[in-house]
């Protein structure tokens, strides 16, 4: 799977490079654009950068070794990463920690098999999706209080403390 992603990334870089070249040319005449099909319009710098990126991506693809087999259902490859990520919470998550992080996401509570959510949700469609799955699991879930990051980027640094 990762190899496929690397190949897609390789082509994305090539496409982006050509789009950038097109978008930076002031002349509307497409014949004057630096691109793979039209290298005579490229500066030495453009060609050198393209070769560096292409060679680096090829080298990356050739040296890629998968972390585990496709049939690694236990995700053994990532178990150490997961353990390290969870180390700050070995002693549990306190109410104070939860309160401090609530402003960085959407807070959900399950109480007596009922689901509650903060009124504010930055992306309502995401909250609806989360609620869809939680509601299906509700009969089996214990009472809990949690904060879910519904944003596009990490909100809390690793090992966040009070």
UniProtKB/TrEMBL annotation:
Q: Where is the signal peptide?
A: 1-21
Presence of the UniProt keyword Glycosyltransferase in the record: yes
Which pathway does it take part in?
A: Protein modification; protein glycosylation
The protein's UniProt keywords, in alphabetical order, are: Glycosyltransferase, Signal, Transferase
Q: Which family does it belong to?
A: Belongs to the glycosyltransferase 90 family.
Function summary: Protein O-glucosyltransferase. Catalyzes the reaction that attaches glucose through an O-glycosidic linkage to a conserved serine residue found in the consensus sequence C-X-S-X-[PA]-C in epidermal growth factor-like repeats. Regulates Notch signaling by glucosylating Notch in the ER, glucosylation is required for the correct folding and cleavage of Notch.
Q: What is this protein called?
A: O-glucosyltransferase rumi
Q: Which organism is it from?
A: Bactrocera dorsalis
Highest classification ranks of the organism: Eukaryota, Metazoa, Ecdysozoa, Arthropoda, Hexapoda
